[in-house]
Amino acid sequence: GAVVSQHPSWVICKSGTSVKIECRSLDFQATTMFWYRQFPKQSLMLMATSNEGSKATYEQGVEKDKFLINHASLTLSTLTVTSAHPEDSSFYICSARVVGDNSPLHFGNGTRLTVT
Amino acid sequence: AQSVTQLDSHVSVSEGTPVLLRCNYSSSYSPSLFWYVQHPNKGLQLLLKYTSAATLVKGINGFEAEFKKSETSFHLTKPSAHMSDAAEYFCVVSDLAGTYKYIFGTGTRLKVLA
User: Does A50 contact chain B (CB < 8 Å)?
Assistant: First the structure.
């Protein structure tokens, strides 16, 4: 159980366009989802915390107008990279949890974004 | 504040020999600690977790880790490395009772030599 599905697994887009990444909890209701960014051969950096039905909380240094997060339902959160630039190229990973459940976070398989 | 330090960025072992990946943490309260493994271009898979129960934690694929409060360590070990163990390993500290944020270490890349 506790499967988190992320889509797409990879995407290539042109500079200036927007890209949407979906994160779904397939067999549980995720009250909270987290979005991470990982640069090549580096660790994961938390970008934002997304709670269902409310605005996302962004970490310091993360542009909220650049990285739009929507958590409209208990099973879906989306990350939209707006007006993408080559420096936005990265590996984006989501994770999810249920409030009151102290089990570890479950992670999606990530999305490789390449902006040309 | 919480933080985690993985002492080795790269570790190489021969197949069949023991694995030791080191992790030290800093936390102002009782931490929850995890080890995750990541294969290339993949998400993260939970290996094991410590959440204030037994200090010696057994995980999947023969891995285990020991929580040592006096040394603020949570090193990952495996008696005998397998080629399939080659991957990136992350030590993670979290406050499961609060913000639930995960703080990741910088990762250790394990290479297994034939």
Answer: no
Q: What are phi and psi of A55, to 5 degrees?
A: -70, 150
Which is more confident, A40 or B19? B19
Name the phi and psi angles at B105, rounded to 5: -75, 175
> What residues of A are in contact with residue B99 (Cβ under 8 Å)?
49
d(CA A17, CA A45): 24
Supply the mean pLDDT for chain B. 90
Q: Assign B25 to helix, strand or coil.
A: strand
Distance, in Å, from the CA atom of B32 to the CA atom of B79, rounded to the nearest integer, reads 24
- Does the beta-carbon distance from B96 to A34 stay under 8 Å? no
* A46 part of contact set with chain B, CB < 8 Å: yes
Beta bridge mates, B36 = B46, B90
User: Which of A43, A57, A103, A111 to probe the B interface (max B CBs under 10 A)?
Assistant: A43
Q: Name residues whose C-beta falls within 8 Å of residue B7's C-beta, 6 or more positions apart in sequence.
A: B22, B23, B24
> How large a percentage of chain B has pLDDT more than 90?
67
